[in-house]
Amino acid sequence: MPTATGLPERLDMEAAVRQLKNGEVVCYPTETFFAVGCSAFDVYAIERVFQAKKRSGSMPLPVIVGSREQLSMITDVQSDIVRALADAFWPGSLSILVTASAAVPAILTGETGRVAVRLSPHPVARELCLSAGVPLVSTSANISGRPATTEADRLDDELVAATGGVLDLPPAPGGGKASTLVEIAGPDAVRIVRQGPVTEDDLQAAGFMVHS
Description:
The chain has eight helices and twelve strands. By secondary structure, the chain is α/β, with parallel strands linked by helices. It has a seven-stranded mixed sheet. Strands 2-3-8 form a three-stranded antiparallel sheet. A two-stranded parallel ribbon has the order 1-9. Helix 1 (13-21) packs across helix 6 (123-132). It is globular, with a radius of gyration of 16 Å.
């Protein structure tokens, strides 16, 4: 919530983790832009992310993990190709659509049963996941239709007012394209759902077939 001065509350890591564990929504840096998120398993907090962004509840939200081990909290499916993609590109700007486990609220997946997950290369985002003990919702911290930002001071006041505060620790987000999003299209094949920093050439060079 805003402080008495009207500025968003700035959180340290301990305070941000405490907010997340209390079911709050927090803004935090990622490799590209500031994100707004919460525990990937807290349906009420997820609803508040949608409300803060003024985003349709029918749209799925992406998730980040702080380690490869946290992936098993998101999906029960043991997939050789998901492991191979993670080996090749994580931590990095590659999001993989995986089958959501029963623990993942349907609202997070947009009722699709799948969730986009990545191991962020941003050290603060990873530490936040690990310290909170859960994967985190990680969607750009902007009201839908407005631009995302790499600067905490430029976060939308209305959005920040709907959160428990802002974690602003270096390094600053670097901007650029949102993560590449892929879905599994076969035992050693993927389909690019959203173009991003990891290119088709990068995927093929790592040994994956890319279907159109």
